[in-house]
Amino acid sequence: MTVDVASLSPVALRHLIRQGKFTQPTSGLAAGYTQANLVILPRDLAYDFLLFTQRNPRPCPVLEISDVGSRTLHQFAQDVDLANDFPKYRLYRHGKMTKEVTSVADVWQADFVSFIIGCSFSFEAELLAAGIEVRNITEKVNVPMYNTNIPLVPAGKFQGHMVVSMRPIAQQDVPKAVQVTAAMPKVHGAPIQIGQPATIGITDLAHPDYGDAVTIKPGEVPVFWPCGVTPQNAIMQVKPDFVITHAPGHMLVTDVLNATLKYS
Amino acid sequence: MTVDVASLSPVALRHLIRQGKFTQPTSGLAAGYTQANLVILPRDLAYDFLLFTQRNPRPCPVLEISDVGSRTLHQFAQDVDLANDFPKYRLYRHGKMTKEVTSVADVWQADFVSFIIGCSFSFEAELLAAGIEVRNITEKVNVPMYNTNIPLVPAGKFQGHMVVSMRPIAQQDVPKAVQVTAAMPKVHGAPIQIGQPATIGITDLAHPDYGDAVTIKPGEVPVFWPCGVTPQNAIMQVKPDFVITHAPGHMLVTDVLNATLKYS
């Protein structure tokens, strides 16, 4: 029997992933539902990190935080196992990635705190719904991401500079793209820069620091949004003993509709 | 020489307060600038409390959190001394108020964390600007506040039910009042209930649990907003050894315009 994963509800998809039967990127699945990033930290780093996200909400929009040691959530998903319901995880020891796995149940610690963080998948869906092409989706590549000179507000051990994602937008669609994304502050909100990459320290659009380059056509403007790679970067600079994140593109599919992330 | 305090800038007003020359409520001062609530907790309670505010942003909208032990801020006010710049403070030991003072410099602890929390003064100013009467201002009393049966999302040691404030609004102005306040999520945002107090456990509008009763005229609807008394209540139930808050109405006057608290 084959299963059309694209037709599955969020909870059915999580069950499939939990059983190890789906280990692929989640882009395009459970259409309309919010997908989320993951950072798992030990409790002794959780206060500084939570403060860091509070001070830098644009690149670090927290959706929900687990209780200490808990593998469940209450607001964004029922029937969820945080140690198994992401298709792929990355383990980092002392700031270096040591492996990718499909379950972290065997390395789970009683002092773990899980941060569920908003992701641009949600606003890309809304841009498409507004009739605005999203080039990285059209070209089936990862969105291009760049380091910038925009300083973050430090918090305890955490500091650094903002990472941004870039999408080329047709000149006449830029205001609409701002409006659509500004209405979704829980998934990075409005652009941070429009059309002048040098002013935020980006000199070579053709060579992103993360992800893949995309085509910029004549008449299009590069538009930059705060990016969820920012908190991961800030964490790795601290070189914690042990941190777990999702693998890029391998997200948690939540029970919450993107539409409910708009101003409320 | 007399000083017209109503004409002072936020920083000039803070200087006056810091010198002990102004110890009155701050309502109506530094028009247009955000005023803020205060909760000072020891560091060992700060993580649970920050998580509690993250899970309950409607009644607990955090504007800024100090570094541990610091008496300064970075985002909402420059040239600020958190131990002296509120006109009046309340000290609580083991959950009971022990005294009101105009400075907490002599009881300051190296492990103190200050939470600066949004306050309805900001949205009341916007309601007035939209041509909507605010009855507690007209009648020169404290806004009426009520306990409800709306459960909060627990976080560590903190839990409880939401406290709400009530303003009677003319039937035809209710949609506008929702729009104006919904645009300011950092100061409680949209109403939580309109016109049906019994559904949230309020049975006697004439006898508020905090503050003063106000007149409700024919054709007016009682409208309820999440209230900043909520976090103070939740803290006192935990009976911490030592907590400091501002005295009601004796707020921090910040350098940030109310207008910038709107969706951004």
UniProtKB/TrEMBL annotation, chains A, B:
EC number annotated for this UniProt entry: 4.2.1.-
Note whether Heme occurs among the keywords.
no
Q: Does the keyword Nucleotide-binding apply?
A: no
* Gene Ontology molecular function: lyase activity
InterPro entries on file? D-Glu_cyclase, Putative_hydro-lyase, UPF0317
The record's comment on protein family reads: Belongs to the D-glutamate cyclase family.
The record's listing under NCBIfam families reads: PRK05463.1
What protein name is recorded for this chain?
Answer: Putative hydro-lyase FC83_GL000048
